[in-house]
Design brief:
heterodimer; A: 318 residues; alpha/beta; 6-stranded mixed sheet; 4-stranded antiparallel sheet; 14 strands; elongated; B: 258 residues; mainly alpha; 12 helices
């Protein structure tokens, strides 16, 4: 296997805003070190106000960093030509509402110097991809929030970019829309693109991402492969449901399980994975019947909530 | 260049779908048309009044459009966040600004042509003779509009739309007075302090002298102007336009879009 190629890199990226009349300093981003490799789906996670959008805006040239450096496709950010190979969907995107879907995409295409039949074909393909083929001649003024999100994704892909940066791509979408966006993101990965997206919807990130990082108050809290983060940090448990257990064994089970809920003849037990065999033995001894056994894996959401409780540190490595 | 063109064409499309433009245009045409009524109420000097009122209307409404749409060229993009999807594309910021500027200038040109046609119709109703000087006057109004659009765009790159409007209107008013102030301060029989004289002179050189673009007096009194003066005035307007656009682009380049 070839060595991973870095497609997005930041080094101690910091942004300090001055707010209010007296110019009070607020640090929105504090020494961010990131390294996103070509071909992966990278989740940029954190609660609202963690500094995700600030970081994305710096990468896209909308904000200037106070200090630190960043590179996209091995060129420093701010190089206009880098953006030729990038696509960007802002959070809750806004477009010229007097344009129709086709006019809008044509406009963005021209900013990439695309024209003629190639551009027309690309527009048709993208409208099909995002499910807006029927709304091609409708002015954006009449679009719903979900439709605007879709046209936003279409404009981000107009130049067939190598790196796609999406800010909260699932927000404002219904469950079907979210699934469609997930499919688009997976499709991009399948065709060799790199997707870097911010989200606070962890379920989506867990399903999609190869790697994630979690940001809090402008600082990186953790970064790594989803599977590694969940395995190393997870506290697994097993949920067992049984019925008809004799009273003596029942009291023994209460000692073995972390939690034991009795509902009539049915018992719900939550126990440590190491205790499962002993619990099952006790159920058999008490002549009980096993109804179900569910191992509980720690989710990204559990990890997220746990990390939010920890103090943030600078310079976490993957 | 094709990117600048894309921004300019999109800007024009936006202006042509903007109600403000039509309101001002209809009002301007009404005012030009009403000169016909005014002429009926005036004893003598029909021609003079009509020419004066017509050119003044074309100038005033052009300037209002230049300022009130001009101040929104950038601020509206930021306010509506449409700028996010544009600045993140491979287009340098100065090209975006230039595209927005050109979009409005072409709209203003279209507008001036429509108002001039209305004016010529009004003149033909009263058989007022039309001279080439009239077209020179309209041409210089257009140059003034280019300068004023650049003024509005310049202010809108660093301040709020309200303040941009106030500053631009002030610039327009002062720009038409500086030449008079300078002239007045230089008269030997006018007793003013050296400081006041310096201020009058300073304003004249620091701000654009918009009175240069005003040929109403010459049109009314049929005083021809030389081709050299005409060319120099156009060059003066273009120089101010370029200077203001460079300043605007420099400020815009450093802006953060929060």
């Amino acid at each position: 296997m070839s060595a991973p190629v870095s497609i997005l890199r930041t080094q101690a990226l910091t942004k300090v805003f001055r707010v209010g009349f007296w110019g009070r300093k607020v640090t929105a981003l504090d020494g961010l070190d990131l390294d996103v490799q070509a071909g992966e789906i990278f989740g940029f996670l954190g609660p609202n106000g963690a500094g995700k959008t600030t970081a994305l805006k710096i990468l896209l040239g909308l904000l200037y960093p106070t200090s630190g450096q960043a590179w996209l496709l091995d060129r420093p950010i701010g190089t206009v030509s880098v953006r030729q190979q990038m696509g960007f969907l802002p959070e809750a995107p806004y477009f010229y509402e007097y344009l129709t879907a086709v006019e809008c995409l044509r406009f963005y295409g021209r900013l990439f110097d695309l024209k003629g039949p190639a551009l027309a074909a690309r527009i048709d393909h993208l409208l099909q991809l995002v499910g807006l083929a029927d709304a091609r001649d409708l002015p954006l003024r009449k679009f719903s929030k979900g439709m605007l999100q879709r046209i936003g994704i279409a404009q981000a892909l107009i130049n067939d970019p190598q790196l796609v940066i999406l800010d909260e791509p699932m927000s404002g979408l219904d469950p079907i829309g979210r699934k469609e966006v997930r499919d688009i993101i997976l499709g991009l990965k399948a065709s060799g693109k790199t997707v870097f997206f911010s989200s606070h919807i962890l379920h989506d990130a867990e399903m999609l991402c190869d790697r994630v990082c979690i940001l809090r108050k402008g600082r990186l809290v953790t970064m790594g492969r989803v599977s590694d983060l969940l395995n190393t940090a997870s506290i697994q448990s097993v949920e067992i449901v049984a019925e008809g257990i004799g009273p003596a064994e029942l009291s023994a089970l209460q000692g073995l399980a972390r939690q034991c809920v009795v509902q009539g003849s049915r018992v719900l037990l939550e126990c440590d994975p190491a205790q499962v065999d002993r619990v099952l033995d006790a159920i058999r001894r008490g002549r009980g019947g096993l109804i179900s056994l569910n191992p509980h894996r720690s989710s990204l959401e559990d990890l997220f909530i746990r990390e939010m409780g920890r103090p943030a540190t600078k310079g976490v490595s993957s | 260049m094709s990117r600048v063109l894309a921004i300019a064409l999109n800007g024009m499309r936006e202006h042509l779908r903007d109600k403000l433009l039509y309101n001002l245009l209809v009002f301007a045409l009404l005012l030009i048309g009403s000169s016909i009524l005014l002429v009926r109420l005036t004893l003598g000097e029909f021609e003079r009044l009509m020419l004066d009122l017509g050119l003044a209307s074309i100038n005033l409404f052009g300037v209002l459009i230049a300022i009130f749409i001009g101040i929104g060229l950038v601020s509206r993009e930021i306010e509506r966040k449409t700028i996010y999807t544009i600045v993140s594309k491979p287009i340098p910021r100065y090209q975006f600004l230039l595209g927005k500027y050109l979009g409005l200038v072409v709209t203003l040109l279209l507008n001036t042509v429509i108002m001039t046609v209305g004016f010529l119709l009004a003149l033909s109703v009263w058989s007022v003779p039309v001279t080439p000087l009239l077209f020179a006057a309209v041409g210089l109004i257009m140059v003034e509009l280019m300068v004023m659009t650049a003024v509005a765009l310049f202010f809108s790159t660093f301040t709020t739309p309200t303040l941009s409007a106030i500053f631009s209107l002030a610039m327009y008013a002062i720009g038409h007075l500086t030449a008079d102030l300078k002239l007045l301060s230089e008269k030997p029989d006018v007793k003013i302090s050296a400081m006041a004289r310096a201020i009058a002179n300073g304003l004249y050189y620091v701000l654009p002298d918009l009175e240069r673009f005003n040929l109403k007096g010459q049109v009314i009194h049929q005083q021809a102007i030389g081709a050299d003066v005409f060319a120099l005035t156009i060059a003066y307007g273009l120089a101010w336009t370029v200077l203001l656009l460079i300043l605007a682009a420099t400020i815009f380049q450093r802006r953060d879009f929060q």
